[in-house]
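B., you asked whether I could sanity-check this one before it goes into the benchmark set. Here's the sequence:
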Amino acid sequence: MLFSKIIKFIFLLTITISVSAQPDSLFLNKKKNKVLDLGWATKKEVGFYLNQVSFTNWNAGGTNSISAILSGTASAKFKLNNLFWNSTLRLRYGLNKQESEPLFKTEDVIEVISNFGLEKNKQSNWFYSARFSFNTQFANGFTSPNSEEPISTFMAPGYVFMGVGMEYGRHINRLSIYGSPFTLKTTFVLDDNLANQGAFGVDPAIYDLDGNIISAGKKTRQELGILLTGQFEDEVFDNMNLNTRLRFYTDYLNSFGNIDLDWEVNLDMKVNKYVKATFGSHLRYDNDIKVETQQNELTNEEVVLEGPKLQWKQLLGVGVIVDLDTIMNASSLTTP
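And here's what the prediction gave me:
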């Protein structure tokens, strides 16, 4: 029931983000000599990044490979007097192919973030704020191209954060710091095998002595805790835009004081109107992901490593970025 409600919410939010008929700014008529500022600002981009390496009689050796990443970003920002509502949808998917090896996934992101704020005092930099975020992936994830057992799938895991708190930032679209003492985190593991294994912190299945399942693994995990986030976005140099987000979360109910970390940095360097170089770094630490199984080649025994691990992903590429708003505005001007 909760999952269906979440999907409906994401669908409605996606429709809101995708609306392109809104002009960049709208203004209501004056009322009692006061201009009420009602403004929508929307942005939609599609990007394609391609990297290719080929060797022919190359005495230093090497493996031919080709990789590609397709990305899409849509955002909608609304401002009315002392109210604001910012929403963002991010989609990314990447593949890599090396000679005789099968296709291997390198990037996989579905993310929705929505933030609603209320400014009580024009002289203050503080806002009352409510936040919602959802993220998961499109396809199965594997430890290597030759693996057959997935370690992640669509909605395994899936994460939903919902909370209320206070946000600091006079220029809220550029720099903000948000704190919430009451944030509900829900982890979804909707794959039966992964749920039975207890992946991503859910309760695992209970088995009898013959290996039969007595009680299936839980597919959701609820947490209530403290969330602290910081976000900065600005053009740090000419044609060079920096976007960074940092998030800390600790749970009241389970292992209070163990902090989950999520830190993402993206540096976009604009070459011209359509070509962009990008560098991305994503650092993550999740206290719920504690077990990793490895095969010991000497003893042929499984080694179980207890405890969470620091995860890091980095991306460097050059690609083509298309601003859909610019194209649609240009076509509307030329249409008779």
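One thing to flag: The two ends are 49 Å apart (CA to CA). Otherwise nothing jumped out at me.
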